[in-house]
Amino acid sequence: MKQLLNFPEEISSWSDNADFCNTQPSQILTLSCYEDRITQLHVTGNIWFPHLLQDFSAVSLFSNLASFPDLKVLSLVSLGLKGPLPPEIGKLSSLEILNVSSNYFDGSIPREISSLKNLQTLILDYNRFTGQVPDWIGSFQALTVLSLKNNSFSGQLPNSLTNLGSLRTLVISANNLSGQVPVLHNLTNLQVVDFEDNNLGPEFPSLPTKLISLVLRKNKFYSAISDGLSSCYQLQKLDISLNELVGPFLPSLLSLPSLAYLDIAGNKFTGKLSQNISCNTDLVFVNLSENRLTGELPDCLQPDSKSRVVLYGGNCLSRRYQQQHPYSFCHNEALAVRISPQKQQEKRPYGKAVLASSMVGGIGGGMALLGLAFLVFKRKFDKQQGNEMPHTSLMVDKVSPAYTLKMLKNARYISETMKLGALGIAPYRTFVWEELKEATYNFNESNLIGEETHGQVYKGWLTDGTLSYTHQLELISKLRHSHLVSAIGHCFECHKDDSTVSRIFLIFEYVPNGTLRKFVSEGHSGRKFTWTQRITAAIEVARGIQFLHTGMVPGAYSNHLKITDVLLDHDLHVKISKCNLPLLAENRRLDDGGVSSHGSKENCGSMLRYEEKNDVYDFGVILLEIIVGRMIVSENDVGISKDILLVSLSADDKARRSIVDPAVHKECSDDSLETVIELCVRCLSDELSERPSVEDVIWNLQFAAQVQDPRHQDCNSNTGSPIQGI
Hints:
Layout: E1 29-34, E2 37-44, H1 58-65, E3 73-77, E4 82-84, E5 97-99, E6 104-107, E7 121-123, E8 128-131, E9 145-147, E10 152-155, E11 169-171, E12 176-179, E13 192-194, E14 199-200, E15 213-215, E16 237-239, E17 261-263, E18 270-273, E19 285-287, E20 292-295, E21 309-311, E22 316-317, H2 327-336, H3 341-346, H4 351-357, H5 360-369, E23 374-384, E24 387-397, H6 401-409, H7 411-417, E25 429-430, H8 433-439, E26 448-452, E27 455-461, E28 467-471, E29 487-494, E30 501-509, H9 517-520, H10 531-550, E31 566-568, E32 574-576, H11 601-628, H12 635-648, H13 653-657, H14 670-683, H15 694-707, H16 722-725
Parallel strand pairs: 2-3, 3-5, 4-6, 5-7, 6-8, 7-9, 8-10, 9-11, 10-12, 11-13, 12-14, 13-15, 15-16, 16-17, 17-19, 18-20, 19-21, 20-22, 25-29
Antiparallel strand pairs: 1-2, 23-24, 26-27, 27-28, 28-30, 29-30, 31-32
């Protein structure tokens, strides 16, 4: 063992005469004995250990372990072990607990594990296991914990899971599992279920009633939820967000006697809420966002409680609540599912109607009908007879007819999607050329903000008093979200001779308060953001990235965001000012079959996952600067600061606080700080698979906001309450 682990310092004193059973535990190794026989072995790696030799053999390691006939607990965590899990594991016949998490084991689970009849806990988290969860997994009559999260298991869950009568914890999150969940109703001891981030569905699973935690987030459940959830009186956490669940929301969930965390966001729940609905007093986090709920927020969820986080945007609640859709949005959504494909085809918008009513589809369709290419231009000035006369230098990108047709087909969907999250932004409309000339004083140089790759940026005042600027960029009028610098209109300049379009002007909202960097690392008027404000800003950045990925067709990935691309509006809320719209790039186009012009659907999906994780890394760099409070301007800065964060996770709370911006290190709670640091390190991982999804980022930041001690929140913050900010 000593030789295989490359002689770590902690066991350098071992010899044939060592009294192993009385060895003091170290950070990397712990031994336990019973009657002078080794019964437990825990080996845990860190950034210094182990440095395995190139010829290291996991088979040799497990062959040596087999010489411990009384070994009941084996934990080999974060050791960098690679390859298939050796079948020699089956020789540890006394084994009751096996934990080989955070390694690089791949392939299928070896069948030899099924011979471990005494096994009570099996943890294979954060590896690279593939294939199906084997049917023989149901043969462990004593198994109480089964955790397989963050692997690449696929296919359906075996029905043999229903035989695990002693099972208390079942965690299979972050895999590629699909299909219907086996009936688990008879597993009466089951308390923790975590199926997050798979493709399970469509029917809501049948579950026992003694659950303490249920997480079904980010799957493909399309049905109504089970009424049995209202009988889960021990349930403390319920997260069924980011599915397509339908039917009425059950208000009784709010009053479950043990519930502390409820997240139903991103579904299609309907129903009318009322002020007299009661809530459990222990409820600290409620997320009702992005559903089809109407009525009034219950009094127990009003955003005036400092001890309860409540999110409710994206519904159709009464007008006194912010970020709500009009009532017709929820009503129309219910009607839309009843329209047959034939009727949808009859009502599809054509020609100039598309041009007038939808944004991206309208511009794309209108230009195609006129027989023109999309134009991106720079504006130059010549002096002629003492006047500034504009002329145009054109760069032409052509869009294929097939892609234009695809955009026209999706026009209705795109225009509806752009409404989400865009409340509070001036309504999108068509401007006339004279309005832009008047707003910018005929494009006077005094209103020139700057020049970018695709054109010049001017500031102007519209006739209704709205401050905005014109931005000559390509087709980005689809950007409509509360955390993006959003387009509020467009204008076509036409040739006088034949009325064809010569140039496109896009009008965006104006964001006055500079970049996020000024409030976290440069200081602003002698004042920096509080810890609560920083978490809120980070959540808003992540929400903006989430919309760029999933709120548009096609999504915008690999956006190369920097903290200087994150602007702050009048109320110090985040507005992302940069994105990578791929609409005009032929190599990113999908045809009507959904297949990339350069590969299969699988290749396209892999590319999007890769590009999503690029944005997660860039977010991690932004979060790093938010934490440490100093400018991060190079990869070397990132590497050094990341290593410091990593070391701090194994240090005590006082040492961890020493690396945080001194302006906030006293006010952040230990749990909140540790959560944010762990998230940042994961975002900056060199391994794409280890970086979290954007949804995971948002969840962790919301949790960090939840556990932040209310006494440390800045009540005079200009960003408003954490509820409004989130």
